[in-house]
Amino acid sequence: MLPKRTCAALAVLAVTAGTLAGAGAASAGQPNGGDRGRNAVAFERTATYPVFQNRPAGEDASAQTVAEISATSEDGRTLVYTDAAARRIGFLDISDTGRPRGLGTLSLAALGNAEDEPTSVSVVGQYVLVVVNTSASYTRPSGRLDVISLRTRQRVASHDLGGQPDSIAISKDQRYAAIAIENERDEEATPAGGEEGDLPQAPAGFVQIVDIKGSSPARWTTRAVPLTAPDGSALPALVAAGITEPTDPEPEYVSVNGRGQLAVTLQENNGVVMIDLASGRLTKAFTAGSADIEGIDTADDGVIDQTGSLTGVPREPDALGWIDDRYLATADEGDWKGGTRGWTVFDSRTGKAVWDAGNSFERLAARHGLLDDSRSEKKGTEPEGLAIGTYDGVRYAFVGSERSNFVAVYDISRPTRPVFRQVLPTTNGPEGLLPIPSRGLLAVSSEEDDADAGVRASVSLFRLGRGTPSYPSLVSASDSSGTGAPIGWGALGALSAVPGRSDELYTVTDAAYATTRILTVRTDRKPAVITRELTVKDAAGKPVGYDAEGIHARPQGGFWLAVEGRSGAGNQLVRLDRDGVTQQVVPLPSEIAAGLGSQGFEGVTATTGGDGREIVWAALQREAGTDPAGVARLGRYDVRAGTWSWYGYRLGTTTTPGDWLGLSEITVVGDRLAVIERDKLNGPAARVKRIYTVDLPTSAAPKGALTVLPKTLAHDVLPDLRATEGWTQEKLEGLTVGGDGHVYAVTDNDGLDDSTGETVFLDLGTTRKVLGRG
């Protein structure tokens, strides 16, 4: 058995917050706001629409196409998104929230230059307002505002903006549009006396106000609000506020409150300015300040180590939003010098931070298996997007993590005391967060598109309703440190029942992490909870990193791991004692290893007879080079005799170029072996995610040609994966029958490498229902 924890460690799933002098602390609570009951209000994902499906006729499906910022028509049924990669805007019909429908695109490059790209979009009445970057270079920034008829998709007006635009916001009375003219810095340029990428870099940015009320778009007028003096020197207000480089403000994101006050983030300058829209007068400027962050992972070392700290980090906010007419919130992504891995609430009257997320946002990622260790030395989760929306009288803040692919939802009914409610999973790089309260919806548009990995940019829809949300299906409890830090996890490629326990399973991390850990999962909770962790050690008792693709918990104590090598010779069975220390290593026979590349052992299971004879079964993912095409091997290892014998398993076929089918898991179910057979496709392209069974041989395989065991389809898991309404995960890799008689499966998120990061943990039902066995 694994070392026991206190009852509190199993029950308390606290989100520990950092503190800020004079500010409130992030509220504690269970994952996704705790158990609020079946009638609790929560957001549930209803659809994930890959925007490459909305491409123009004849365009290559692998061509890069993204969704960054979005807006909707006034009735909330037509969504418009920017696609900077393809120089266009796209239109979706979201009338049916479960089946978004592509309505085509409009090329903005065709309205100007081939390199023109949209940076933001909004909708006013019958018009779509698109801000377009037309800059020839960093030193010659330019841009325009295109006004598009929502009905005809024809451009009805265009206005010169005098610089490179970033974001746009519309006042609540629809009298004004405000546009941040960033004139962004060149990260490869070196200003006089500075270092590469430093500020200042002329020309300075400013804000454009567009007067839009009561006239046709062609008659709209613009008013520039400079953020520097006419001679290029700094404004005294920005100097007094402590703005980093006030001669180069670089406004980033804009938001308007109900009183016509415009708030603008100066991300690289770690500040916020406020402008009265009616007069165009700058009314306030304040620094976003800095924060100390403790209890986070700060090293890119393949280990989720939440004991690191950062001191005096500038917040450098990106998106911001007004909570009400007094308080505003910022997503503190950071840029070149900062990033506090959370978000902050400011009092606009004083410019002081009144609440800070501390380490709680980063710990949400760790608790949900979404912490990307490769970003730990940089800016961590990088909260980039932020939006505010009021649903049924309750005000919510939505904060998007660019690097961990989630949106955190908070109840901000009390602006100075946000309460965490739930995490929403997204595809890669969620940037545009769009509340649609009139329809009870939230739309999330994602900017990362990787056709090679099969993970595409998308628009996801979430609907507010009553009931327990299906995500997350797996979270972690606090670790043993006593600090409230959650057990960090990810890359789960195997499952095993815990002998003698009806409500626990084991899983194991793979080569995505430098040190292998065996995790205990409690299945009697919704979501299931990782409650304990055990570090695997080598024979000398030192932590070791195995590419563990299979795990079997031995009734007599300890574990078998199926370890996949980078080459055939690296494949081995490893036996551990109950403390996780390596006791035995069984190499793959050399004649088999010689025919393998990087795809070897993928699963392990075992039986122990009445005479104590232990037989270990292991699955190779694909055929060895010396074997018949399409026939993978199931290995039978007799522990007492120390001998291998091999049976064959015939894989299915695929017609998709570049695809292949292979095995991902093996487990004993009575007198049968159950295996996972899957393709390497994900998203809408996924086709094969299946559980097959074969008879469990009672003796060693005969010598000579492989005896192929006839297989029977037991369960198609693809509908279960698609039922999440998210991005269908590629790596269905873990399978076992628990002590409660239920069949469990889990997907491997690869530690967020070439993956959305979402882990799907499935209770597929009883063994009789799923596998036809009692």
From TrEMBL:
<dbReference type="Pfam" id="PF13449">
    <property type="entry name" value="Phytase-like"/>
</dbReference>
<dbReference type="InterPro" id="IPR015943">
    <property type="entry name" value="WD40/YVTN_repeat-like_dom_sf"/>
</dbReference>
<dbReference type="Pfam" id="PF22494">
    <property type="entry name" value="choice_anch_I"/>
</dbReference>
<feature type="domain" description="Choice-of-anchor I">
    <location>
        <begin position="339"/>
        <end position="421"/>
    </location>
</feature>
<protein>
    <submittedName>
        <fullName>Esterase-like activity of phytase family protein</fullName>
    </submittedName>
</protein>
<keyword id="KW-0732">Signal</keyword>
<feature type="domain" description="Phytase-like">
    <location>
        <begin position="488"/>
        <end position="750"/>
    </location>
</feature>
<dbReference type="InterPro" id="IPR055188">
    <property type="entry name" value="Choice_anch_I"/>
</dbReference>
<feature type="signal peptide">
    <location>
        <begin position="1"/>
        <end position="28"/>
    </location>
</feature>
<dbReference type="InterPro" id="IPR011044">
    <property type="entry name" value="Quino_amine_DH_bsu"/>
</dbReference>
<dbReference type="InterPro" id="IPR052956">
    <property type="entry name" value="Mesenchyme-surface_protein"/>
</dbReference>
<dbReference type="InterPro" id="IPR027372">
    <property type="entry name" value="Phytase-like_dom"/>
</dbReference>
